[in-house]
Amino acid sequence: MPSTVKGVIARSKGADVEVVDIVVPDPGPGEAVVKVEACGVCHTDLHYRDGGINDEFPFLLGHEAAGTVEAVGEGVTDVAPGDFVILNWRAVCGQCRACAKGEPWYCFDTANATQKMTLTDGTELSPALGIGAFIEKTLVAAGQCTKVDREASAAAAGLLGCGVMAGFGAAVNTGGVRRGDSVAVIGCGGVGNAAIAGAALAGATTVIAVDVDDRKLVGAKAFGATHTVNSKDVDPVEKIRELTGGFGADVVVEAVGRPETYEQAFYARDLAGTVVLVGVPTPDMEVMLPLLEIFGRGGALKSSWYGDCLPSRDFPMLIDLYRQGKFDLDAFVTEKIALDQVESAFEKMHGGQVLRSVVEL
């Protein structure tokens, strides 16, 4: 029978979120119901609440989640009730042109649950990133469940579902950071710090953290930054060049998503270097760069989609690194909160007071 549980919705653009009763159907073919144990509060959820993604209100928020599979529908074989899973929003189809080329991390036809979760009056909800995990249990496509070792805490593991994976993958998968590289990361929130950690783990010898908040720069050192730059005080492009022998960094990860910081990233890279955009811009933002500079500097300008990750490959690998003490997922968890504290977590996010607030259920 369908379940009625508590969850957090954004009913209209800019309105405070609400904790309400939500009806979760039994899983149909290819679907799974997951009992959510923890879910991080990501800036993307705030984008949804503020209408920055689309206007398909009401939204069921939350997507950085881990929990236990409670039930599966017909035809599901990869996960079973009792499995500890991280939820992902790249359930690859295996058939689209990206998958056919052997690049499933670019899958262009990812799966979501076919059925809809609803309010008790029947109003259909739009789950954030096809997940919707600020809720006691959620309905997803079975391919959105990635089984991992339960030794990791749910609060830490769930962050791989979005922000930490996006940042780590931006450096390692998209940017291709190698041993001995120099790397600059602009923006030291959760995603930026994950990029710093990924670059350090990949063997970068110079890892430069750039932000306007000294508190964040102190935190970046704990994730592996070898140098910090407060771009309120100095020109970050010149400082990055100074710290890299006058050349610029091999890889620059832009984790803010603003035209001015993207331009800094563009000019802060070495010739034939790589710029990776993982910060999420708003639809109105534009970048103006001289075409001759784009040609003359060579290299690559890349966008990182979800850290170009393949959840089935990358989530278990990162959990293994966590278990070995090589990747400190726990350090990303600033506080643990209840469902009714999501709105206050958004306020703390605005103030730069947290890397991640994590809802525990």
From TrEMBL:
Record bears the keyword Transmembrane helix: no
Domain Cytochrome c, first and last residues per copy: 25-139
Organism of derivation: Ornithinicoccus hortensis
Annotated keywords: Heme, Iron, Metal-binding, Oxidoreductase, Zinc
Similarity field: Belongs to the zinc-containing alcohol dehydrogenase family.
Protein name: S-(Hydroxymethyl)mycothiol dehydrogenase
Any one GO MF annotation of this record: oxidoreductase activity
Domain of life: Bacteria
Names of the cofactor(s): Zn(2+)
PROSITE patterns (alphabetical): ADH_ZINC, CYTC
